[in-house]
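S.,

Sequence below, as promised.
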Amino acid sequence: MRTATESDGDGQMARNMPATRSRFSQAIIDELDSRKILGLRAGSEPHRFIGVWMVVVERRLFVRSWSLKPRSWYRTFLTDPVGAITIGDRELRVRAVRTRSNRLKDAVSAAYAAKYHTPSSKKYVRDLSGAKSRGTTMELVPLGKASTR
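The prediction came back faster than expected:
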């Protein structure tokens, strides 16, 4: 457990972070890790779910933005960090947390390369590991119990 005065692994001190963070159950993490596409809805306003690439690192769910468009899910999460993901017929409420740790960002890049390794995926993985997308790394943490859609 990390407190507000411990380092994040990059020599940076944690600020305004809770000492504990909610985690998905092992069953949900296993199911997420087995899938290639995550259904994601950013923000608390009604909106459709979109498909995004995601990875699991250290039993935690991470996403990165590829396009960085002004009306993207990433920019929505910056102003309204509440959203939802889908797993099968379940909808889970989530909160997006920006990742600052370079160690975690490196691990997320490696996880993208390992998971999305087809010849047609490599260009996108290279872009997702570039400085621009790397800076958009977000962890999605659970906000509540699963519901059905």
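DSSP finds five helices and seven strands in the chain.

Coffee later?
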